[in-house]
Amino acid sequence: MINAVHCSHQGINFSVNKAKQACLWPGISKEIREAIECSNICLRFMKANNKQPITQHPIPDLHWQNIVIDFAYINKTDYSVMDDYYSKFVVLHSLRKNDARSVINVLHHGIPDEVMSDIDPPFDST
Q: Structural domain of residue 10, as residue ranges?
């Protein structure tokens, strides 16, 4: 069981939680922690994967000046999910196509000064 939950090398907490979903025995957390601490792969990358500090974004002066946007694909439909940094208001729009033009068409509050997003298809340059 320990090898099964640790095979993806996702760390101690992930492996313990995964194991507890399947079964439970006394000392489960300790046994998994000890096994992972002896794993050559985990030892090699453990220090390199330190948690990054949380960064705070400055609060903008106006609504929809800075937004965060992400995309979802649900039931064969593309959606944009936009969040205003100022008000924390969230807007969900269905998109005809998952491209830059469709995203621009749903920016009903004007073009923001800053857009935060992971590199989703509408924002890649290819």
A: 2-49
CB 123 within 8 A of CB 89: no
Number of domains in the chain: 2
DSSP state, 112?
-
Structure confidence at residue 91 (pLDDT)? 93
Structure tokens at 46: 């453990």
Cα separation, 40 vs 71, whole angstroms = 37
What residue has token string 């330190």? Answer: 50
Q: What would the pLDDT profile of 7-53 be if each residue is shown by its tens digit?
A: 776 777 888 888 888 888 888 888 888 887 887 777 777 665 566 78
Same domain, 72 and 41: no
Tokens of 47: 């220090």
Dist CA 58 CA 113 (whole Å): 13
